[in-house]
User: Which sequence fits this backbone?
């Protein structure tokens, strides 16, 4: 009962929020709506008994990523209204509507899944976090480590790309780079 | 009863909204927003399937998608900053140097 | 013995190929000498083969397999029997003399080397034609002589009239070759082989309708080569080529190929006497037809060309009525005196600086005694006066016509004999005797070089004595060909001979008498019959009006309306379609990120549609 209400409320809210993100011309509104949408998606995760993922969603997405976007918005001076000239609106809308219809109709078709085995079934009595921890650090250890390295690389690249020196390096010739390195 | 189909339909709708954003927006930052929407829609789908088939693999997949999305945003914003410093505009049409 | 066969066959080819190496260079005397030498070698080999065939009999050689495809087997085979060895001797003898003559005649021509190459190639093709032992080999030789004739008639290709005449000859031959090919196809279809022996063995058991059809088709081929009506206009126009060409090709060899074909297929034509009679009638018609046109013509070589045409008619009368050895005999003697006439005419042309109009000549006897004597000898032989060669052969033909009961044919040939005598001596009188018209044009004629005259002497000798070889000839050739009995009483025969001789002598006398006194009055030239004859009965004009003009209009239409508008357009359309597709697709690569994203979504939608429609999983 509660599940049905919660599902419909959350889905309405999510669709509304994301609608604002896509259609609004004010950048601030769009960003805020995105953050809101993330939170509601986290709500979905909680309904689906994925508590760990729900928390991670709030922490990573709404916390870190939206913060990044906020800093970016400040940098680009996009608080003003974004004026966009969209070309051939009809094509875009017709394409998205057709794809939506197609996806829905595909997915509404009866799902036939014979002998679907679950690889890592959840056990009664054990909490979700605990289960995830077990699976993550035993079966998915290598992807976990690789993801860690990838995040490290992303961080370094973010720092390098945005630094002041980078700007200068891009604007000068190769010989001058040598000179700058030697401090002339 | 909320069946898996409900969640998958929701995923489809959210994905289409993301597509609209991708096609419509000419401000690069807004484009990134739409990409986030796409990823999140997929996350819902994975977790829903995981719940209804009683398999943890879906949740872990969603977990890794979140990790990837994070690093993608970092790198993407870095590049965007560079481009802005070069050209002074974040508009999609300023990216075009090919004449077709 | 086979070595002699190969020598006789391939010596001309070797000569042609060797001289062809120098074809583009300026005149080199040794090419002519080498060519003449090699043809002379071929001639000697032919004579040896003649003696050999006389002693031992025919020689049959298969050199190698050519076509072996399923049931069709055609080898390169050669047969030297009585008929082909006579042809070989005639061809090589006249060719050698013509080659030697050409060294003198083409003296100042800058394409000297090329001429000998073509001439030797012609001799080679003709040898293949007469020596082959199957119909396909015959056809190869047939086409080869057609080609070489085209090359030689159009030798001076810069002249528009020469290349036009060459094309006319070749095209007319080609039209006739279609008939010949149909005949060849029918032969293969009924017999399954192209070999002469197999064909003639099964000829007796074949259906008469098929035989008639084959006979007609083969004769159509012969009509083109031997310039029978209506495919005769090319022979007169072929005089555009150099005179040695006319002597060799259009007097002695190529035009006799048609007669050779009929003689070779004698066993076939004896079984279809109706077709034979039709051939004979056509021959008699051509004999008179050509003789009439020669009466009024003023062109030196054309008169002799019409004379050839007329004599070919005589040969076909003999062959059509079944007297094959007589046709062959006349072929041989005719070759000698006709080529002599042509070569003599060449001398005259050279002396008169290539002037052809006999009205502008006259009284050349004083400056060109040797040529005059030779030409007179040849003319007498042509007219058929005893004891020269023409008398024996021509008279025999008249007797054949009479004994077959074809009195109309006999009468036509009889009149033809008179006309022949008249125009031959008209020519001689106007050229060598009478008023010296050439003085008005400031020409100083001189005799040809001595070696040229010496080369012509054997021909003159043969024109005189060849007639006496008649009985040996008959005995020799009828080993292969059928015997022919002439059924006339001795008294009637003497009367006929006397009548023929009489009309020939009267023709000569009339010509000498008229042209002594300065010829006919100008008033004759206004009359309709004169105009008719001198315009060749307006037949070339007819051909041009009713055949050439519509055909070239059709070709023009096909070119402009069909080829350019339809075919080219279709090809261009395909190319344009490809190009325009590329042009339009170019817009896809605009470099605009928004556009690219849209194309991505389009691709995704297409994939979704496919997944929806195909559903391979389900």
Assistant:
């Amino acid at each position: 009962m509660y599940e049905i209400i919660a599902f419909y409320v959350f889905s309405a809210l999510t669709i509304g929020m994301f609608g604002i993100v896509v259609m609004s011309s004010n950048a601030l509104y769009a960003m805020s709506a995105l953050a809101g949408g993330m939170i509601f998606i986290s709500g979905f995760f909680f309904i689906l008994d994925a508590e760990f993922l729900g928390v991670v969603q709030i922490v990573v997405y709404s916390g870190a990523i939206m913060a990044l976007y906020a800093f970016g918005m400040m940098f680009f001076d996009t608080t003003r209204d974004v004026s966009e000239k969209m070309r051939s609106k009809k094509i875009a809308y017709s394409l998205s509507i057709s794809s939506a219809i197609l996806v829905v109709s595909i997915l509404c078709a009866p799902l036939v899944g014979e002998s679907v085995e679950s690889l890592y079934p959840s056990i009664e009595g054990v909490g979700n976090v605990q289960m995830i921890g077990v699976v993550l650090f035993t079966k998915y250890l290598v992807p976990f480590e690789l993801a860690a390295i990838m995040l490290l690389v992303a961080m370094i690249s973010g720092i390098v790309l945005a630094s002041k020196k980078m700007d200068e390096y891009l604007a000068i010739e190769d010989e001058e780079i040598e000179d700058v390195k030697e401090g002339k | 009863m909320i069946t898996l189909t409900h969640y998958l339909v929701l995923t489809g709708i959210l994905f289409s909204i993301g597509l609209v954003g991708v096609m419509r927006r000419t401000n690069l930052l807004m484009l990134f927003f739409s990409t986030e929407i796409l990823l999140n829609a997929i996350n819902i789908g994975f977790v829903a399937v995981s719940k209804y088939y009683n398999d943890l693999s879906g949740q872990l997949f969603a977990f890794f998608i979140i990790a990837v999305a994070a690093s993608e945003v970092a790198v993407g914003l870095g590049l965007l900053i560079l481009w802005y410093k070069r050209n002074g505009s974040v508009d999609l049409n300023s990216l075009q140097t090919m004449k077709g | 013995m086979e070595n002699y066969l190969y020598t006789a066959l391939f010596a001309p080819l070797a000569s042609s190929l060797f001289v062809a190496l120098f074809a583009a260079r300026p005149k080199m005397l040794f090419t002519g000498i080498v060519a003449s030498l090699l043809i002379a070698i071929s001639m000697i080999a032919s004579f040896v083969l003649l003696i050999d065939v006389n002693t031992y009999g025919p020689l049959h050689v298969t050199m190698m397999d050519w076509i072996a495809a399923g049931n069709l087997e055609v080898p390169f085979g050669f047969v030297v029997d009585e008929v082909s060895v006579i042809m070989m001797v005639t061809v090589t003898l006249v060719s050698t003399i013509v080659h030697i003559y050409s060294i003198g005649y083409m003296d100042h021509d800058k394409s000297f080397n090329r001429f000998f190459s073509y001439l030797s190639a012609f001799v080679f093709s003709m040898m293949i034609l007469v020596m082959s032992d199957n119909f396909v080999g015959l056809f190869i030789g047939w086409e080869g002589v057609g080609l070489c004739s085209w090359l030689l008639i159009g030798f001076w290709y810069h002249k528009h009239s020469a290349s036009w005449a060459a094309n006319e000859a070749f095209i007319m031959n080609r039209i006739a070759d279609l008939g010949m090919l149909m005949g060849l196809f029918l032969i293969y279809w009924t017999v399954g082989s192209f070999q002469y022996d197999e064909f003639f063995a099964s000829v007796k058991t074949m259906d008469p309708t098929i035989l008639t059809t084959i006979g007609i088709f083969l004769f159509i081929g012969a009509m083109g080569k031997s310039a029978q009506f209506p495919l005769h206009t090319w022979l007169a126009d072929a005089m555009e080529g150099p005179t040695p060409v006319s002597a060799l090709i259009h007097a002695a060899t190529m035009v006799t190929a048609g007669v050779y074909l009929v003689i070779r297929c004698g066993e076939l034509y004896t079984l279809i006497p109706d077709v034979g009679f039709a051939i004979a009638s056509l021959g008699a018609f051509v004999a008179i037809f050509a003789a009439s046109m020669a009466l009024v013509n003023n062109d030196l070589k054309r008169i002799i060309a019409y004379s050839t045409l007329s004599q070919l008619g005589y040969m076909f009368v003999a062959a059509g009525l079944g007297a094959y050895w007589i046709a062959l005999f006349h072929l041989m003697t005719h070759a000698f005196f006709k080529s002599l006439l042509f070569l003599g005419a060449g001398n005259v042309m050279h002396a008169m600086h290539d002037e052809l109009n006999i009205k502008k000549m006259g009284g050349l006897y004083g400056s060109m005694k040797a040529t005059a004597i030779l030409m007179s000898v040849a003319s007498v032989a042509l007219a058929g006066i005893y004891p020269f060669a023409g008398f024996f052969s021509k008279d025999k033909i008249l007797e054949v016509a009479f004994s077959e009961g074809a009195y109309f044919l006999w009468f036509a040939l009889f009149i033809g004999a008179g006309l022949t005598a008249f125009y031959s001596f008209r020519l001689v009188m106007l050229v060598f005797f009478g008023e010296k018209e050439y003085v008005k044009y400031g020409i100083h004629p001189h005799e040809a070089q001595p070696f040229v005259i010496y080369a012509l002497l054997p021909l003159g000798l043969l024109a005189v004595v060849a007639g006496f070889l008649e009985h040996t000839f008959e005995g020799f050739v009828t080993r292969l060909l059928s015997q022919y009995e002439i059924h006339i009483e001795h008294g009637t025969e003497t009367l006929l001979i006397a009548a023929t001789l009489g009309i020939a002598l009267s023709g000569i006398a009339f010509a000498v008498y008229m042209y002594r006194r300065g010829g006919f009055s100008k008033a004759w030239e206004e009359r309709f019959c004169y105009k008719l004859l001198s315009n060749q009965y307006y037949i070339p004009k007819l051909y041009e009006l009713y055949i050439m003009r519509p055909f070239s209009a059709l070709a023009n239409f096909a070119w402009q309306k069909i080829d350019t508008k339809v075919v080219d357009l279709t090809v261009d359309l395909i190319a344009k379609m490809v190009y325009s597709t590329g042009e339009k697709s170019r817009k896809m690569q605009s470099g605009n990120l928004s556009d690219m994203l849209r194309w991505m979504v389009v691709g995704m939608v297409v994939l979704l549609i496919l997944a929806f429609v195909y559903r391979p999983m389900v």
